[in-house]
Amino acid sequence: MSFGKSRKIYEEGIKYIPGGVNSPVRAFKSVNTAPVFIKKGYKSKIEDEDGNTYIDYIGSWGPAILGHSNEELMEGIEDIIKDGLSFGLPTKIEVDMAKLMVESYPAIDMVRMVNSGTEATMSAIRVARGYTGRNKIVKFEGCYHGHSDSLLVKSGSGTITYGIPTSLGVPEEIVKNTIVCRYNDIEDLEQTFEKYGKDIAAVIVEPVAGNMGLVPATPEFLKTLREITTKYDSVLIFDEVITGFRIAYGGASEVYKIEPDMACFGKIIGGGFPVGAYGGKKEIMEMVSPIGGVYQAGTLSGNPLAMHMGYKNLKLLQRDKNIYHKMEEMAIKLEKGIADNIKKTGVNATIVRFKNMLTLFFGEGSFNNYDDVQRCDTSLYAKYFKEMLNRGIMLPPAQFECMFLSAAHTDEDLEYTIKANYDALKAIK
Ligand SMILES: Cc1ncc(COP(=O)(O)O)c(C=O)c1O
């Protein structure tokens, strides 16, 4: 495979963009190689600037759940564009989209559209604080909720800890109100609430964590979270930016049968456009400006083109009742194939799957929290990634991310991937 054109663009890019990319993971730094630049995508495949094609398991980190350039999704896009791109005034499609989201996700009565997942979680936290009149929030180590200051924290030593900024530029005074707990650890959660419960405005959680590799919450953990936040009148926020409309049409709330007080969305609800949303119970959402005292706004929020595409994406997912089942069946096939290959090659690795998401961890044992995933051999993942890339498979360019299946993947894609996985595992052993 030749990457000459990608390399050239990258060299040019690093002069003008920090790291040559507009989001860090795209730099392929974790897998010790230079990024490839993508030119186009069709169904389950993407093609780079050099003409190399890949079976894509990133899917724009989730939005391309119907595959790239889905014909039904793209149909009529010119007509929408012809009517104008943005008005800064309300449009009907925004109301249609809000109605569809509220009907699709029973836990929320109202929703506000924003432009990214980061904006959604940041705003939800502000609303929860405004609603409860409290300042402290709880997040879990290894969960990522975008890059707003109060959520860019990691755990200090010990279990119940105040956060330490994970980034330069985040003042300690801001994250001092963020408590970091261990994912899937009920005892830690209970102790935290015993100590600080009356001051906790909200708990934000990825109900299926996708940002430390794939680590699903146990049902008991989420159940306890629901009970304890109810007991202390704290707002439970499900960050469904990845899981919403992905692991089921109704997201993790549907799968776990738990209703949060608020939920955040992104990725799929934009159909490939930059969109986020946060929603919640009526009395909470009525805190939001202009009816309430919590300010939150956006020039391009509810952009008509983005709303049309997001609305269509959701409608297409809603229409085909079998679509989630089909994606899960494909993921199961991949999981089985990879598990067999691990056995045959003897590589120290574990495949984890939840619904249509997977992570191949280069380590053994169970993966329930951030400490567990830290056992993985990230340099082995880097080698594996390159072997797979050279065989025409685009995996997440970092160990602590997920593979996403789309409805456009085919049996041949899966068979080819399983074979490539075998060869790649053999090559790195
Ligand atoms: C669970 C979760 N929440 C929030 C975000 C932030 O979304 P965005 O990148 O659109 O700002 C992400 C991004 O990957 C995410 O995975």
UniProtKB/TrEMBL annotation:
<protein>
    <recommendedName>
        <fullName>Glutamate-1-semialdehyde 2,1-aminomutase</fullName>
        <ecNumber>5.4.3.8</ecNumber>
    </recommendedName>
</protein>
<keyword id="KW-0663">Pyridoxal phosphate</keyword>
<keyword id="KW-0627">Porphyrin biosynthesis</keyword>
<dbReference type="GO" id="GO:0006782">
    <property type="term" value="P:protoporphyrinogen IX biosynthetic process"/>
</dbReference>
<keyword id="KW-0963">Cytoplasm</keyword>
<comment type="pathway">
    <text>Porphyrin-containing compound metabolism; protoporphyrin-IX biosynthesis; 5-aminolevulinate from L-glutamyl-tRNA(Glu): step 2/2.</text>
</comment>
<dbReference type="InterPro" id="IPR015424">
    <property type="entry name" value="PyrdxlP-dep_Trfase"/>
</dbReference>
<dbReference type="Pfam" id="PF00202">
    <property type="entry name" value="Aminotran_3"/>
</dbReference>
<dbReference type="GO" id="GO:0008483">
    <property type="term" value="F:transaminase activity"/>
</dbReference>
<dbReference type="InterPro" id="IPR015421">
    <property type="entry name" value="PyrdxlP-dep_Trfase_major"/>
</dbReference>
<dbReference type="GO" id="GO:0005737">
    <property type="term" value="C:cytoplasm"/>
</dbReference>
<dbReference type="GO" id="GO:0042286">
    <property type="term" value="F:glutamate-1-semialdehyde 2,1-aminomutase activity"/>
</dbReference>
<dbReference type="InterPro" id="IPR005814">
    <property type="entry name" value="Aminotrans_3"/>
</dbReference>
<dbReference type="GO" id="GO:0030170">
    <property type="term" value="F:pyridoxal phosphate binding"/>
</dbReference>
<feature type="modified residue" description="N6-(pyridoxal phosphate)lysine">
    <location>
        <position position="267"/>
    </location>
</feature>
<dbReference type="InterPro" id="IPR049704">
    <property type="entry name" value="Aminotrans_3_PPA_site"/>
</dbReference>
<comment type="similarity">
    <text>Belongs to the class-III pyridoxal-phosphate-dependent aminotransferase family. HemL subfamily.</text>
</comment>
<dbReference type="InterPro" id="IPR004639">
    <property type="entry name" value="4pyrrol_synth_GluAld_NH2Trfase"/>
</dbReference>
<dbReference type="InterPro" id="IPR015422">
    <property type="entry name" value="PyrdxlP-dep_Trfase_small"/>
</dbReference>
<comment type="subunit">
    <text>Homodimer.</text>
</comment>
<keyword id="KW-0413">Isomerase</keyword>
